[in-house]
Amino acid sequence: MRVGMPEGHPLAGPGGPVRMADLAGCPWATGHVGTNHADLLERTCVELGGFRPDVRYRSNDLMVIFAMVAQGGAVCLVPDLALAEREEGIVVRDVADAPVDRRMVMWTRVGAEVRPSVEAVLRELRRSADLLVERRPSCRRGAP
User: Fold this and answer.
1) The pLDDT of residue 144
2) What is the 3-state secondary structure (H, E, C) of the chain?
C-alpha cells in the first residue's frame, strides 16, 4: 500500500517516502466502514501516525477514490497494484514509517485441486502471480 495525494499537496513535490504523522491534518478518502480498506487506513494512521484519519469521502470504487484525491484534495492509501501514479492529478509516495502490506489469499476446499477445472484455475493464478511479481517488485509471492 502507498499514499496517494493530489499533485498540489505540500508533500507531493519531489521526494521520497512520506511519514504518516505528516498527513494527520489531511482529509482522507477510503472504503466504506467495515471494509478491509477502511480498517487498514484506520490502523495505519493510528499505529504509524498516532492519529485518527479525518475521513471525508467513502467509496468502494477506487476510481471514485482517485477522483476524490485528484479533484477533492483528499489523500488515500492505495494498493500498489492499482497503479494510481498513472491517474492524472495524483502523486503516489511510499509510507516512510514501515511497510503497509495487504495479503491476498487463495483458498480451495481440501481435495478440490485434483479436479481438472480447479487445477487449471490454480495453475493460471500461480502463473499470473509469478508474472506480477516480475513486473511489480513491491509485490511478494508466498508459498505456492
Assistant:
1) 59
2) CEEEEECCCCCCCCCCCECHHHHCCCEEEECCCCCHHHHHHHHHHHHHHCCCCEEEEECCCHHHHHHHHHCCCCEEEECHHHCHHHCCCEEEECECCCCCCCCCCCCCCCCHHHCHHHHHHHHHHHHHHHHHHHHCCCCCCCCC
* Predicted TM-score of the model (pTM): 0.77
| Mean pLDDT, rounded, for 111-139 | 83
The three cell numbers of residue 24 are 494527520
Residue-wise pLDDT tens digits, 16-45: 899 999 999 999 999 999 999 999 999 999
- Structure confidence at residue 28 (pLDDT): 97
- In the block, cell 495505519 appears at 44
Distance CA 93, CA 113 (A): 39
